[in-house]
Predict the structure of Transcriptional regulator.
Amino acid sequence: MKDRIRQIMESQHMSQQTFANFIGMSAASLSSIFNNRTKPTLNTVEAIKSKMPRLSTDWLMFGRGSMFIDDTPTTDPSPAEDTDMGSEHVADFGGGVPDLFGGNQTGASVQQSVHRHVESVIRPEVKYVERPQRQITEIRVYFDDLTYETFVPKK
């Protein structure tokens, strides 16, 4: 991905500093990506995409397709959102798409079921581990004459 970021930078005839300023990123962060100290994050992708909406997210992240989204109209009347990486685009060929159980679903309902499936799979779980309450056993105060005093709480 760092090579594709460099390609974007060169295609726009920008220096590393200029490109970092353009996308709202620090030059040091961009430099660390190019020097393999860090990997580009989703925030980096979003920063680039927000400044260059015609850039293909699929190309930037995975190297698939062309660098820029084509301006040629598609047969689908609604424009495809390139930033939605989790969805699958379904073409509607008019008569609908038969499902596995012999019914007939339209392209829109297939897309809705795909979205429902994706949403049902991703469920983050947060587990809270209870730790026993800690007790103070000793407090030491050190003085500048290299002595110390110890205090022990009463039980």
The helical segments are 2-11, 16-23, 27-34, 42-51, 57-62, 107-121. The chain is about 35% helix and 10% strand.
